[in-house]
Amino acid sequence: MQIHNLVDLGWSHYFQSQLDLKSLESQLPFRVVAVQRNLIECVGLDSENQQKNLQLSTYYWRDEPPEGRPAIGDWLLVDLDFQPLRILERKSLIKRRSAGRESSVQLIASNIDTVFIVTSCNDEFSINRIERYLSIAAESNIHCVVVLTKIDLCSDTRPYFEAISHDHPNLQVEMVNATDAPSLCALKKWIEPGQTVALLGSSGVGKSTIINSLKGNQDQTTAAVRESDSKGRHTTTSRSLHCLPGGGLLLDNPGMRELQMIDTEEGIKTAFSDIDSLAKKCRYKNCRHTTEPGCAVIEQIKAGRLEQRRLDNYHKLLSEQIRNNESLAERRYNDRALGRFYKNALKSSRRFKSRE
Predict the structure, then answer these.
(1) What are the phi and psi torsion angles at 41 (to 5°)?
(2) What CATH number should be reported for the domain holding residue 65?
(3) Which residues define the annotated binding site?
(4) Which end of the chain is more exposed for a tag (fewer CB within 10 A), N or C?
(5) Residue 5, Cα to own-chain centre: how many angstroms?
(6) Domain boundary pick from 197, 224, 252
(7) What is the pLDDT along the chain (356 residues), one digit of tens a residue?
(8) What total of structural domains would you count in the chain?
(9) Where is each CP-type G domain found (predicted)?
């Protein structure tokens, strides 16, 4: 990654306003471009305005909660010896409940301007999954564009386009062949210099191929999908930020068939604004839109102006984020209780030793 100034990395007045003159004399902003298990890779300029690549140990943030640790896309302030000081306030954040049984927050990316929701014109396509991504992006007011790939392998792309435009008429949709660079010209208008675009989607939909085509090289490993079920294999194993030759940054993500919802109630209501608006007209304020009399949402479904599928997905996402929030709150409470136990045990041990 070659940069000439911080604007190439996405620096803006939003981040500049968080610094004072004293900070500018003794601190340097670096952007996190990759996060590994034990290392964080950053790019910035040194005190002589020369590009500097840093590798910092995650040890620095071992005592911080997940939200307090660096995510890819973060701006990190370091001192003149390149030791980390603090993370600048984020203007957007994509996060999820971590995979597995453990209830914790996993940061996906921060300071994103636009999300490309990448999906294929085959059996992988799911409007429910698209609405999940829309809800997560809406929580941070991130602009979204749906990118339909593999149009060269599809005899009729209209059903996929119409499935999106039927429920989301104002959502931008671009249809591309990820292996054909001219086909991707439509995407370039969303990737202006200094803008950061994250690609979200399942494995095998063409995220890495899109990045390779836009960059004009084959830096990102790709693999074919299984013909039997259109499912892809995980070729991207970690998140990475890439500068494009004409400016702009692309963030590649490992394939995620689902992002478990957490802290996204407002985002869900925004993505399903039609249902949220109808809910205000229901007879009862606590209407669940199932069998209650005077439900404006159910009336629209009976009249054929709202799909049952859309309401079902709305209920599913809201229930999921409530469940995950409760699990996370319980985990945080247990962690605090365990911390208090250890602290009290240490105090008791010290008192006992002092008496000896």
Answers:
(1) -100, 130
(2) 2.40.50
(3) 149-152, 201-209, 282, 287, 289, 295
(4) C
(5) 25
(6) 252
(7) 788 899 999 999 999 999 987 777 889 999 999 998 899 999 999 999 999 999 999 999 999 998 999 999 999 999 999 999 999 999 999 998 876 666 678 899 999 999 999 999 999 999 999 999 999 999 999 999 999 999 999 999 999 999 999 999 999 999 999 988 888 998 998 999 999 999 999 888 999 899 989 988 655 444 454 444 445 444 444 688 999 988 899 998 876 656 888 899 999 999 999 999 999 999 999 999 998 999 999 999 999 999 999 999 999 999 999 998 887 767 666 556 555 655 665 666 566 556 65
(8) 2
(9) 102-259
**C-alpha to C-alpha distance for 110 and 95, rounded to whole angstroms:** 9
pTM: 0.84
Asked if residue 157 belongs to a domain, the reply is: yes
d(CA 348, CA 340): 12
With a CB cutoff of 8 Å and minimum separation 6, the contacts of 296 are 278, 279, 281, 282
195: domain CATH number?
A: 3.40.50.300
| φ/ψ of residue 51, rounded to 5 | -60, 135
Domain boundary among 33, 56, 91: 91
Do 158 and 233 share a structural domain?
yes
CB-based contact 43:52 (threshold 8 Å) = yes
Residue 226 placed within a domain = yes
Q: Which amino acid is at 121?
A: C
As annotated, the binding site for GTP includes 149-152, 201-209
195: containing domain: 107-252
Q: Which segments are annotated as binding site for Zn(2+)? A: 282, 287, 289, 295
CB within 8 Å of 196: residues ≥ 6 apart? 10, 73, 111, 112, 113, 114, 241, 248, 249, 250, 251
